[in-house]
Amino acid sequence: MGKVTGGMTISLDGFVNDRNGSVARLYPNFEALGETDWLQESIKTTGAVLMGRHAYDMGQGDFTGYEYQVPIFVLTHNVPEKAAKGENDNLSFTFVTDGLESAVKGAKAAAGDKNVVVVGGASTIQQCLNAGLLDELEIDIAPVLLNEGLRLFEHLQSEHIELERTVVKNSPLGTNMSFRVLKAVPSSTQ
């Protein structure tokens, strides 16, 4: 069975977007990002994607040419009225309204022996960490300082989350760091 991995690009000071919600400074060249070895490896080893509704909405309903051509599970409270563009035999959307654990369970079943990748949505990654559902964390650190915005690790409920660094790679776009998530100790049991 594959792993559940989550990750995002953050600024050096820990933000996933700026004070206006823009990610432009974190992703100055999407074409170059798509050509990186680590993204190509991720695409090969991914069997399903989990994303939050905000990340889905950023695609504005059009996933034509989306890099992950796998089933996508969108964690949401409300199912959109219009179907997303770009669905095909490989890329499909399932909108999960009955909670994170159900979304992860469905994504794992769809992924089979491959990985489930949590793409985007700081809140979704935080929820996975809080629930102990994330096996690995991949952080791409962009060489920019945003000074304010949305922080990736702002709302963690576990007081003690242990990470074991497994990989550090440099690229022209920044630094990629991978961590194994060790068991978190929820604050209510300490």
Question: How would you characterize this protein structure?
Answer:
The chain has 190 residues and is an alpha/beta fold. The chain has one domain: Dihydrofolate Reductase, subunit A, CATH 3.40.430. The protein is 22% helix and 34% strand. The chain has 5 helices and 12 strands. The strands form 3 sheets. It has an 8-stranded mixed β-sheet. Helix 3 (53-58) links the parallel strand 3 and strand 4. The longest helix is centred in the middle third of the chain and has 12 residues, at 100-111. The chain is globular, with a radius of gyration of 16 Å.
Q: Portion of residues in helices?
A: 10-25%
The total beta strand count reads 12
Beta-strand percentage?
Answer: 25-35%
Low-confidence stretches: none
Brief synopsis:
With 190 residues, the chain is of the alpha/beta class.
Keywords:
alpha/beta; globular; 190 residues; 5 helices
Note the topology.
Elements: E1 4-11, E2 15-17, H1 30-34, H2 37-45, E3 46-52, H3 53-58, E4 71-75, E5 92-96, H4 100-111, E6 115-119, H5 122-131, E7 136-142, E8 150-151, E9 158-160, E10 163-171, E11 174-181, E12 185-186
Parallel strand pairs: 1-6, 1-7, 3-4, 3-6, 4-5
Antiparallel strand pairs: 2-8, 7-11, 9-12, 10-11
